[in-house]
Amino acid sequence: MESNSAYDLGAPRSGGEYRDTLELLAEMARDFSTSLDIHQTLGKALVRITHYLGAEAASLFLLENDDTELVCITCEGPVDIGGLRIASDHGIVGRSVQDNLCQIIRDVSQDPDFKSQVDEKTGFTTRSILCAPMSVKDSPFGAIEVINKKGGDGLFDENDRHILQALACSAALALLNARMALELVEKERLRHELDLAAEIQRGLLPQRQPAPYPVAGINLPARGVSGDLYDFFTLEDGRIFFCLGDVSGKGMNASLLMAKTSSLYRCLGRTNPEPGALLAVINNEIFETATHGMFVTMVGGLYDRESGKLIMANAGHEPPLYIDADGNVTSYEAEEPPLGIMPGTEFPEVEINLKGGELYIFTDGVTESPIDGGKMLGATGFTEMIKELKNLSLADRLDMIVDRVAGDRKKLHDDITILGIEHRAPAE
Amino acid sequence: MEHEIREQGDVLIAVLSGDIDLEQAPTARKVLLECVGQGKSVLVDLSGVGYIDSSGVASLVEAYQAARKTKSGFALVSVSVGAMRVLELARLNKVFTIHDTIEAGLEAS
After folding, report:
1. CATH topology for A15-183?
2. Is-contact A321 A382, C-beta < 8 A?
3. Per the CB < 8 Å rule, is A319 touching B89?
4. What is the nearest CA distance from A205 to chain B, expressed in angstroms?
5. Could you give the domains of chain B?
6. CB distance from A378 to chain B under 8 Å?
7. What tens digit of pLDDT does each residue of A160-191 get?
């Protein structure tokens, strides 16, 4: 019979042309290691196997569709069944894969699992079958089936079974390697996209202003992208509008909501610099569009650096801490829930005068960070740290705090974000 | 996180216990949305919850919002001290209906 092979290996060779199975294995291994197209290489391997075992035809099936189907990805012989899909427990090949066992069927007409539909459709006559599962670590993901031994008694023997098992193992390993290589490429692509997203997100944060600018912030994402946000900008009248927020959850979905909230705050805040009213507008907007119950805890405020007067509104966020000039600490708990949960919520403002003191707004990534052998830093530990570093500039103090809190950054479990606002009493 | 669903008359009681964090929140979400989807009043027993983070709270919020849409009852009962601290700090006690005990929740349902 004529072969329909797409892979030209020269004239059909008898098994005798290969010195031994090792040589065939070596040739296959060489093909697998030098080709980037695994399906093409499997096709070539199947041709070699068919010729070596002296079979009339062969096919290679792989599991697809959550292992519910076996698909013929390449075949060799007089009829082309490439692309044929069968249920994963169908026929001899299905049994081989399900049981993860090699099958020798000397007379298919006597096997209840043999399905004759393909023969009926193609005109081919199947008499005997040798089928070996392709599996790694007891997990089959396909099978190689060879059909009708040419010459002799027309039956496959134990020697053929051992050889096909070895060849199927070799092909399985090559396929696994190729799949892992593809996964690595895909992971690299995703990592690159994540890096780009993180870079764009960093661009949403305000730049550090040179001293003596009284507001500074810092954000250290636990992953590439962050669900935390902070922002500040100077209005035309010199007052500074600021915010800090924390989106529920982590990862890309949290970072997208972070980007939206941050943009709304900056854009609307320029024309409507009233913290409570602005939080109410953003609350309604997020409520209408957020999914999966996502919400944003946020503190928004307005600061007059000359007088030290600061007003702020808190939507379900960690209490900001005010440390006065004498080191006394006051905490400002939220009066209303986070943004995105209850439409129509009004967010009352509180007014304080910093009077030579400082206000710190931060995310729970700071206070819940484990320090000194696992104990959480807590608000008390955080204020102690601030007081200890009081001789540093505001920006340097924030950097030092994050360095201490983050420790080994690889183990960071949550984003860390702090916004500091200070008031320098005018020199007398 | 462990979960158990009990049915008492027309009320479903979803008992969540353990930690509801980023890893466990999708399970909590699925369990709660399935309960709410049955159209009955739902009580979420949080007595055995040790730690709940913002993604866990989001699963409660989503179920609460789904229940509001269908005008079904949704309340938290027997909230553990740790979970209550998280809810109170974020003023979510203004959002959720919270009962001290299952009996009180059943009575109000």
Report:
1. Beta-Lactamase (3.30.450)
2. yes
3. yes
4. 22
5. 2-108 (3.30.750.24)
6. no
7. 999 999 889 988 988 888 889 889 999 999 99
